[in-house]
Amino acid sequence: AHIESRLARALAHRADLIICNSEAGRAFHVARGYPAARTVVIPNGVDLPRYAALDRLSARRLLGLDPSRRYVTTVARFHPVKDHRTLLEAFAVVAEARADVDLLLVGDGPLRPELERLVAELRIADRVRFMGVRDDVEKVLRASDVFALTSLSEAASITLLEAMASELPVVVTGVGGNPEI
Fold it and tell me: Are 139 and 63 in contact (CB under 8 A)?
């Protein structure tokens, strides 16, 4: 990684422009030696109408979700940086206090077997749905009540933007570009 970062810095000094998707990302790179004058921010965006096309009940019906329940949702690959463990441990507390709340996990990745074991250990398997990789994330978000993201690091989360475009309250860690968003 050290050689790669030296190579990246050397190439950055030869680039006409370096584009980051958040001020936090820009600050991160400038602190590591990227030329500040040529490092600019172009924020990510999402197609707003796509995330407002369905009402909550219609989205739940399309996904086969119980309209009388509440859903906390996360959309993230199952990777250590996304820290699903913290989310699952927090949800176990919520599940004990609220019998009408379930957790929807959208995504997949190398940690899935470990996360499935943790769900079983926490005794919340009947309240957590592993929904896999999906091409209809907007439906899942529209069916949800709250979006949660427990990442340890982020540049500028597209899923956070998608959740906000879906008019969801969001609970996210204050890392990277999340506070800006």
Answer: yes
Per-residue pLDDT reduced to its tens digit, 15-45: 899 999 999 999 988 998 889 999 999 999 9
Residues belonging to the chain: 181
The tens digit of pLDDT for each residue in 75-102 reads: 999 999 999 999 999 999 999 999 999 9
What values do phi and psi take at 39, rounded to 5? -110, 115
Whole-prediction pTM = 0.88
Q: Quick one: which of 50, 55, 64 has its CA closest to 137?
A: 50
3-state secondary structure the chain: CHHHHHHHHHHHCCCCCEEECCHHHHHHHHHCCCCHHHEEECCCCCCHHHHHCCCHHHHHHHHCCCCCCEEEEEECCCCHHHCHHHHHHHHHHHHHHCCCEEEEEECCCCCHHHHHHHHHHCCCHHHEEEEECCCCHHHHHHHCCEEEECCCCCCCCHHHHHHHHCCCCEEECCCCCCCCC
Tokens in use for 48?
């707003």
Quote the CA–CA distance of 78 and 124 in Å, as a whole number. 18
- Neighbouring CB atoms inside 10 A of 38's CB total 13
